[in-house]
């Protein structure tokens, strides 16, 4: 049990090193779509203007449930959301609501909703204008007689209480309709390519006009109002009075048309979220807007955040791998010593790798009551166990019996036999397992950005949200290069730690 205590302390220390938390830090969260990124940046930069707090933006944390859980656990202090989402998805209200009622219920959780931005970003369904015109579809009720249409809907919309299932019941849609789950940013491209016929959209999406879509009228008024507001912890106004006063100035500053333009700057003009937010705030204060220089792929690849993301990614990989070695090697040794338990140990670590990465991260958030580094490190640690345990076990089991017997005849105690004979003979196979785990962790660590743990995954998440291949590649390419460098590093390490005669054929 001592080794597990050491690992626990190690992961917590690593989390502390990665989080760089400050006493006066205001943590702003956002969901994983363009508008939420932009609003999160606006709040972050507005807060930073006051000089009262270090404002950090934990962008692209995931869906509504993950971000709300982060708020309740104090992993973040504030984030932008929508009244309809709060009422229907989070509070499960079935009847009418207003901001006052929402606040009365949120207060029970130590939370509140305030600062209406001034626009209503409602859910809607949309089709290509040409196809909708040809089929005579103008409103949602018209879909009831078109069971042949293919629906491509965001995963969150498919599972929401105010989403797909309720829509089917309200409009009497054919229950045989199968909706395909798609990332929101990719759905537009799939619709344009006529791979699907109907998608869910946000009414402030910039791509509605670009792709010439017809937004179907909600003729039965299924969707509630989705007024954009800030959801916050009730202690924020007391902790940061100047920040809170500054945020009040954002009330009513963004109407629907303005939000569409802001989204277009990111999705169509290729401006980064920080620049979009900065331009908005400069117009609000009357300052002259700065023109952003044209962005090439290389400028995006080596953007100012490159080195900080690299350090974050390396720390995630290093500390999780170190913990996996400290646990995995003893487990592999135990399996080789006790054949009765070998199958159980190998089966348990094998099952861990069958769990999808995002599902494991989502599961760990409520376990640790926080987002970010801690659940990410634990998830990476668990994923790295299998190759290390399996290869340690295999390497020790492949040692010929006559060599073990020779060591016993020489009178070497068990500890000395392990150190001087067994581990050196098994080192090539053991190192191969560690190398495999390290390379896997470099790739898997990109998923950690979806819960605010940083690393190259931040660029990948933003690229997916914007359907921006250049930004996506600016995150994927460094991760791939890092994986190759890690593999090369272990090949070099093998030359020093493993004698030539014991090296695996693949590394010769």
What are its keywords?
508 residues, alpha/beta, D-Maltodextrin-Binding Protein, domain 2, MetI-like fold, 3 domains, 10 strands, 58% helix, elongated
Give the domain tally.
Answer: 3
Largest sheet: 5 strands, mixed
CATH topology-level name of the largest domain: MetI-like fold
Question: What does the average pLDDT come to?
Answer: 85
CATH homologous superfamily caption of the largest domain? MetI-like
Shape: elongated
N-C termini distance:
38 Å
Helical proportion?
Answer: 55-70%
Which second-level CATH architecture of the largest domain applies?
A: Orthogonal Bundle
Annotation, overall tally of beta strands: 10
Low-confidence stretches are none
Strand order of the largest sheet: 7-6-8-5-9
Structural class: alpha/beta
What count of helical segments does DSSP give? 24
Radius of gyration, whole Å: 27 Å
CATH class of the largest domain: Mainly Alpha
**Which percent range describes the beta-strand content?**
5-15%
Kindly describe this structure.
It is elongated and about 85 Å long. 44% of the residues are buried. It is α/β, with parallel strands linked by helices and 508 residues long. Helix 1 packs across helix 19 and helix 16 runs parallel beside helix 20. The protein folds into three domains: 166 residues, 3-Layer(aba) Sandwich (D-Maltodextrin-Binding Protein, domain 2); 93 residues, D-Maltodextrin-Binding Protein, domain 2, CATH 3.40.190.120; 202 residues, MetI-like fold (Orthogonal Bundle), CATH 1.10.3720.10. The chain has 24 helices and ten strands. The strands form three sheets. A five-stranded mixed beta sheet has the order 7-6-8-5-9. Strands 3-10-4 form a three-stranded antiparallel beta sheet. Strands 1-2 form a two-stranded parallel ribbon. It starts with a helix and ends in an 11-residue tail after the last helix. Strand 1, helix 2 and strand 2 form a beta-alpha-beta unit.
């Amino acid at each position: 049990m001592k080794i597990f205590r050491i690992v626990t302390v190690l992961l917590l220390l690593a989390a502390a090193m990665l989080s760089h938390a400050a006493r006066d830090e205001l943590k702003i969260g956002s969901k994983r779509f363009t508008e939420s990124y932009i609003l999160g940046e606006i709040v972050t930069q507005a807060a930073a203007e006051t000089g009262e707090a270090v404002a950090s933006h934990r962008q692209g944390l995931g869906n509504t449930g993950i971000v709300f859980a982060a708020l309740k656990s104090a992993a973040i202090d504030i984030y932008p959301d929508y009244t309809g989402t709060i009422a229907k998805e989070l509070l499960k209200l079935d009847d009418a609501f207003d901001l006052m009622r929402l606040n009365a219920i949120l207060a029970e959780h130590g939370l509140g909703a305030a600062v209406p931005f001034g626009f209503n970003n409602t859910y809607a369904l949309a089709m290509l204008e040409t196809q909708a015109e040809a089929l005579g579809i103008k409103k949602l009720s018209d879909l009831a007689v078109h069971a042949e249409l293919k629906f491509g809907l965001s995963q969150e919309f498919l599972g929401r209480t105010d989403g797909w299932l309720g829509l089917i019941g309200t409009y009497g849609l054919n229950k045989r309709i199968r909706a395909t789950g798609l990332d929101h940013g990719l759905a537009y491209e799939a619709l344009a390519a006529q791979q699907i016929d109907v998608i869910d959209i946000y009414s402030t999406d910039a791509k509605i006009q670009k792709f010439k879509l017809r937004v179907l009228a909600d003729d039965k008024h299924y969707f509630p109002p989705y007024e954009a507001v800030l959801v916050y912890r009730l202690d924020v106004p007391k902790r940061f009075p100047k920040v809170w006063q500054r945020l009040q100035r954002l009330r009513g500053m963004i109407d629907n048309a303005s939000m569409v333009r802001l989204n277009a700057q990111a999705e169509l003009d290729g401006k980064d979220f920080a620049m979009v937010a900065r331009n908005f705030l400069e117009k609000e204060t009357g300052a002259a807007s700065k023109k952003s220089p044209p962005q090439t792929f290389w400028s995006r690849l080596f953007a100012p955040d490159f080195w900080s993301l690299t350090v974050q990614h390396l720390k995630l990989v290093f500390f999780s791998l170190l913990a996996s070695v400290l646990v995995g090697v003893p487990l592999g040794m135990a399996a080789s010593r006790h054949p009765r338990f070998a199958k159980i140990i190998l089966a348990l670590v094998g099952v861990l790798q069958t769990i999808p990465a995002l599902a494991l991260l989502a599961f760990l958030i409520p376990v640790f009551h926080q987002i970010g580094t801690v659940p990410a490190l634990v998830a990476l640690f668990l994923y790295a166990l299998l190759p290390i345990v399996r290869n340690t076990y295999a390497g020790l089991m492949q040692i010929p019996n006559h060599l073990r017997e020779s060591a016993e005849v020489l009178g070497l105690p068990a500890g000395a036999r392990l150190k001087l004979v067994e581990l050196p003979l098994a080192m090539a196979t053991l190192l191969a397992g560690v190398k495999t785990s390290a390379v896997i962790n470099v790739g898997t660590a990109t998923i950690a950005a979806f819960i605010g743990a940083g690393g190259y995954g931040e660029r990948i998440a933003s690229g997916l949200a914007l359907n921006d291949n250049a930004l996506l590649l600016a995150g994927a390419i460094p991760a791939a290069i890092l994986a190759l460098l890690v593999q090369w590093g272990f090949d070099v390490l093998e030359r020093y730690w493993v004698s030539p005669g014991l090296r695996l054929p693949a590394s010769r």
